[in-house]
Amino acid sequence: MPTRPIASIFAALLVIACAPTARAHDAAAPVARVQAVQPSRPTTVYELRLWVDLPLILASGIISSSWLLRNELAPPHCAPQCDPSVLASFDRPFAGRYDSGARLVSDLGVGAVVAGSAALLLIDGGFVDLAVGAETLLVTSAVAVVTMMGVRRSRPLAYGDEAPLSARLEGNATLSFPSGHTANAFAATLVAFHMLRARHARSAMP
Questions:
Q1: How many H helices and E strands in the chain?
Q2: Measured on CA atoms in the order 23, 24, 30, 32, is the torsion positive or negative?
Q3: Closest by Cα among 113, 139, 120 to 59
Q4: Who's near 54: CB < 8 A, 6+ residues apart?
Q5: Residue pLDDT, tens place only, 137-152
Q6: Contact (CB, 8 A) for 77 and 159
Q7: pLDDT tens by residue, 62-72
Q8: Residue 98 scores a pLDDT above 90
Q9: By 3-state DSSP, what share of the chain in percent is helix, strand and coil, each rounded to 5?
Q10: What is the reported pTM?
Q11: Cα–Cα distance, 184 to 87 (Å, whole number)
């Protein structure tokens, strides 16, 4: 007869002992579910479709490479020294200017911007993001080259005698607009900004 009260007491103690564990498990379950539904950082921002992107990259690369033939074009029609009076008033202060040092600084600056953008995309997003960035830069460069060769606007150096005669008689002296340096630097900066912003949407950085 005394075994029934002892058994009842033992069962009550077992229930009391197990209750905190059950409550702790129930409390942890919603946390686990919340953590499971939290979005993780996307592995890629854009998706490449090779049947579209590969021909576009190849075509843009071929068009951009035509820049290497720029000196095969005819020189400015007014070479070797053009008349600055035919220019608009806002262009005349820059007519005839030539500085080989400034040109080198410009080349190095654009190279640094493009290299920095490529490094950011590769480190943060891998080869897919780098490929998208390269495609953006190639398309921009192709559009700029086609426009320059269509417009054929003479460079400032063609309106003076500061530049060497050989530079004023080159086909490159007619490719002033649009600026290839500006186009490429802007494209590299913009693609890096948008890719990083899409990947880190909750970042405090702008």
A1: 6, 0
A2: negative
A3: 139
A4: none
A5: 999 999 999 999 999 9
A6: no
A7: 999 999 999 99
A8: yes
A9: 70, 0, 30
A10: 0.75
A11: 26
